Amino acid sequence: MLVVPSGAWADVLQDLGATFEQVAQELRAAFPKVESRIVAVEGSEVRLEGPEVAPLRPGLELVAYRKGEPFRHPITNQPLGRAEDEVAVLVVTAVAGTQATARVAVTEGGRTPQVGDGARITAGRIQVAVLPPLGANVPGETVEQTALLLVSRFSALLEKTGRFLAVEPRRVLETATPPGGATPPSALEVAKTLRAPAVLSSRLVQEGRDRYLDTAWISGRTGATLATMRTPLARANFPSRFAWERTPELERRHPLEGPARGLAVADLDGDGRAELLVADERVITVYRWQEGMGPVSTGVEFRTAGLVLSLDAADVNGTGRAQVIVVDYQGGGEFITSTVLELAGERLRPIYETRGRFLRVVPVGRESWLLEQTAGQSEPFEPGIRRLLWREGTYREGARLRLPSGVSVYGFALMRLTGSPEPEMVALLPEDRLAVWTAKGQRLWTSPDAYGGAAVTFPYAPMGEPRDRIDVIGRILGRLHPVSGPGDEADILVWENLLPIGGQFRTLLPRLAAIAFAEGRMHRLRWKDGAFQRVWQSQITDGYIVDFGYGDLDGDGAPEVVVGVVPRGVNLASLVGRPKAHLVLYELP
Questions:
Q1: Rg of the chain over all Cα atoms, to the nearest angstrom
Q2: Which residues does residue 277 pair with via DSSP β-bridges, in sequence order?
Q3: I want to staple 198 with a disulfide (CB 3.0 to 4.6 A). Which of 128, 419, 435, 563 is the partner?
Q4: How far is CA 239 from the centre of its chain?
Q5: Nearest residue to 62 via CA among 38, 28, 40, 39
Q6: Residue 330: which residues within 8 A CB-CB, separation 6 or more?
Q7: C-alpha dihedral, 182 to 217 to 229 to 235, nearest 10°
Q8: pLDDT in tens, 13-66
Q9: Helices (H), 55-99
Q10: Whether the Cβ atoms of residue 23 and residue 15 lie closer than 8 Å to each other
Q11: Cα(312)–Cα(355) distance, rounded to whole angstroms?
Q12: Which candidate, 262, 251, 361, places its Cα nearest to that of 314?
């Protein structure tokens, strides 16, 4: 027995079940039982007549058949009926009363329709293979378990209508989701393999604050889409247990072929569609979204000289397409290298490079600022930062800002929270708390709960010290991403990595804390009454969070939070030092 997890996602599964049932009834009405006769044939067009023709609609398929010789009882010789041979598949083009016209789409065995042949949509149950719904993943369950749960539920509800006969769900999943990450077959290929006359695909989508189930009925004979519908997702009438569960998030999961240390979502080529960039230890890879498959590598890569510390992408030059900013480390402060890249054809081309300085992109209102912080002589980061502005083919220094103690360009944001002319500073602290200061450095608030949790660290040798004596650990404290809240309210996205033991591990042993994180979760916080308050949190991930991006990756009009998660467990991949990460995509309420 499959167990539906408790909490917000149980409500979502209840919603999906109710929506599946509504769709099943609509599909039952979309495929009437029709018996007709061919009364005229002109080339590839036929005319049909019969009292049951009226419910037809353009696009529906009928099977043309021809009656053969009678067949008889082998002992009594009494006639039992007549054999029937399929002649062709007909596609309805027009309907008028008890008459319809159709075109011949597929012929069988070299036969062509003739006057007097029959044409029908069977009065029996229509066999259909239900594909796994896209866009839904249940925390705590594997992708395979979730797919089996949803396919079984949808199949059962279709059969309950009395009009359909569903292919056994496990057979469908074995055919539609090949092992080893192989390319999934098309709907038509699935239908032919299973010998099913139809395939049903569906996807859970969000537009703004509205959620829908998109459904498509695909012919197993021609591959044509015979029926599509967009059904609003039913709402569960359960009271919220917590403020952040007012509307559960949609979650999707996609595997990567290797580890991850940074990621970003941005439009690299100016075509209006966002790309995804993922960095492992030394390689930046560009992905694009493909419908039905998720993020797929484009083959565009950039290899760094050192270990990747951070990755950003945004239009900081005002060119209408995003630049890529990567920081890597080869040891010691002078071996910090920051590179700005642009997509040129099928490669990422460096347009700027600097050593001994960290570069980071910070959203400020509708702009993306490129900030620079110098590597320190005795500490990883000097206390001040400055904005870089693209002028005459290079970056020039802009406004300077002195940071509060312990704050770096990582885990830093500028937001307008109090109505002051100058934006407030929001930052993660070394002890993994979130704090807010005025532009003049006056602290306004510090979180009582932990946020952040640096999974990416680097050993730092102070200037003049031997490289084999590393006493300072540099921490990439994470990412803060401001997002628009309702009205004029200011929201921010931040992650929290969780330790399996006491929180004192974070500050007492920072070198080991990064390797002890086992789980994580995302938070959406809203500034209200002088403090950030949680309005949403995700389910706990099955691994620690290394980075996240924010943007409309799948092109559906609603931005996603794209989270990079690295599993913490003992397996072959982790033993050889390259655990395979995965992406978790959330569509926020």
A1: 30
A2: 264, 286
A3: 128
A4: 27
A5: 38
A6: 305, 306, 307, 337
A7: -60
A8: 667 878 898 999 999 999 999 999 999 999 899 999 999 999 999 999 999 999
A9: none
A10: no
A11: 17
A12: 361
